Amino acid sequence: MKNSKEENIFKLDGKVPLRKAVPVGLQHVLAMFVSNITPIVILANVCGLDKTLSAHLIQNAMIIAGLGTLIQLCPIWKFGSGLPMVMGISFTFLNCAISIGTKYGIETVIGSVLVGGLVIALLGLFAKYWLHLISPVVAATVVTAIGFSLLSVGANSFAGGVGAADFGSAKNWIIGAVTLISCLVFSLVTKGYLKVISVLFGLAVGYILSICLGVVDFSVLKESDLLALPVILPFKPSFNLGAIISITIIYLVSATENIGDSTALAETGLERPIEQKELAGSLAADGIVSSIAGIFGCTPITSFSQNVGLVAMTKVVNRFTIGTGAVIMIVAGLFPFFGAALQTVPPAVLGGCTIMMFGMIVVSGIKMIGKCGFSARNMLIVSLSLSVGLGFTQVSAMFKIFPELIQIVFAENCVSVVFLIAFILNLTLPKNME
Fold first, then answer.
1. What percent of the chain has pLDDT over 70?
2. Which alpha helices (DSSP H) does 315-413 contain, by range?
3. What angle (nearest 5°) sits at the alpha carbon of residue 343, between those of residues 19 and 36?
4. CA-CA distance, 175 to 152, in Å (whole number)?
5. Which pLDDT score, from 0 to 100, does residue 1 have?
6. Which residues pair with 301 in a beta bridge?
7. What's the predicted TM-score (pTM) here?
8. Which is more confident, 295 or 415?
9. β-pairing verdict for 87-89 and 301-303
């Protein structure tokens, strides 16, 4: 029989010893760490920011991710879902932010982030007036699309990371495969708490192998300070109506991902439908913390689907345990050396760890579709929205006839297309289809 404290890790509010909570919390950090800082790194490079300021923004990104996660775990008034959710800097805004940043400057990006975040926070606070428009089959279809959209992310990491000089090399294949097999074997031969940390075990095996193969770059550690306080308002916000509208539209796209992630967490982790107040709190927190991210010079945050996959795979939903991961992120922000150490994990190792987790999101979405029922109406909504959303965005050049804003929102974001098609079909199709 399992120890009661060991079982608590699978309960939302169970008491878990710190020595067991920290490794699992670290697992959640490692699953999202690179994805959390990459949008900031890319935007800083495009906007020509110096290395010192870029380092401060990376530091701030970790602190904001930790803060956002804590608010989601432990709601403040109506802000926060109370679900085992991990937040981080969103990739969804990157193309739009680059477009605005190169044209008007990063100050205008930050001004738009501040305003757009407040809009989403208000939508969350008043969610009871519009959430009924998003039916379970729409949410299930979005979750499935999120899973499919992440498969290429996992595959790219497995091969060494997009743009890597050794992309697809034999070393990366070996590292990725050994990491994946280690995760799988460890999960199969262990039980209880050990089974839960299978991803961490696989990551450790992959990292040691990477060191032996000479793949790990430790040079970043030499340039890191031991302790550094975050920089607040590194840019003076500038406001442009067109930029604000553009960013706010992307916020709405990000909100659909948040709805999908939140729904999947409740369905797969807690094995129950999500409550309206949880969904409303999740969106409100997403918006207000994104505005706070702007104060720290960062682009908006959102729920991280990588961690939804991790919850689906491990069934760990304990808020204290995941909260330790949030604290680790804040510590990584306050102690840049610690964050730099996490950056040394090679992409192939992360790919080996995450590829199966992303597949779990797809399976979770399919299970949710099954719960909605296989009526002719539901099948039409799911099949058409997925085929158009996934198919069209794989041939993004077909959007070239549309204005730039439409291309930014839809051309390479299958989740936004899937949501839009599913939402329209759900509102317009007859309720009683044969």
1. 98
2. 319-334, 336-343, 347-372, 376-393, 404-406
3. 85
4. 18
5. 41
6. 89
7. 0.80
8. 295
9. antiparallel
